Amino acid sequence: MSDDRAIPPAVCAVWEPLADRWDDTARHEAFVALVAQHGCYAWAAARYRARAGDPIAEAQLARLRSAAVDQLIPEARARRKRRRIGIIGLLGVLIGTLFAVLVIGFLYLSSCGAG
């Protein structure tokens, strides 16, 4: 399995007693909430996958997957939105520069023709 030293001790401490009271839904909910708080989804999923075929483990894997998606998708969308605003801003600067060059060129040509 993965290196437990990289996992917060609080998460490991909640996982260890789960084996003694595996049917306790409240303990699983507390564990999943703590995993979401610390973002160690892969580690927790590996623990539940080790009990493949167990209905409780399968249900908790689904909860972990849902929690991970709920947390990670909005973050990715926010990054994409910030990037899109940056591109739109750059496009605005380029269009503004082009407009300024055209105005300056028009004024220069107008002054040359009058002189």
Tags for this model:
single chain; 115 residues; mainly alpha; 4 helices; 0% strand; rod-shaped
From the alpha-carbon coordinates, what is the Rg to the nearest angstrom? 28 Å
The percentage of residues in β strands lies in: under 5%
**Average pLDDT figure:** 86
Content-based structural category: mainly alpha
Shape: rod-shaped
Q: List how many beta strands DSSP finds.
A: 0
Secondary structure: helix percent: over 70%
Helix count, DSSP H or I runs of 4 or more residues: 4
Q: Strand-and-helix sequence, N→C?
A: HHHH
Q: Report how far apart the termini are.
A: 83 Å
Report the sheet with the most strands, covering strand number, pairing sense and barrel closure.
Answer: none
| Low-pLDDT ranges | none
Question: What do you see in this structure?
Answer:
With 115 residues, this protein is mainly α. It has four helices and no strands. α1 packs antiparallel against α2 and α2 packs parallel to α4. The longest helix has 60 residues. The mean pLDDT is 86.
Architecture blueprint of SSEs:
Blueprint: H1 9-15, H2 25-38, H3 41-49, H4 55-114
Helix pairs in contact: 1-2, 2-4, 3-4
Quick synopsis:
78% of the residues lie in helices and 0% in strands.
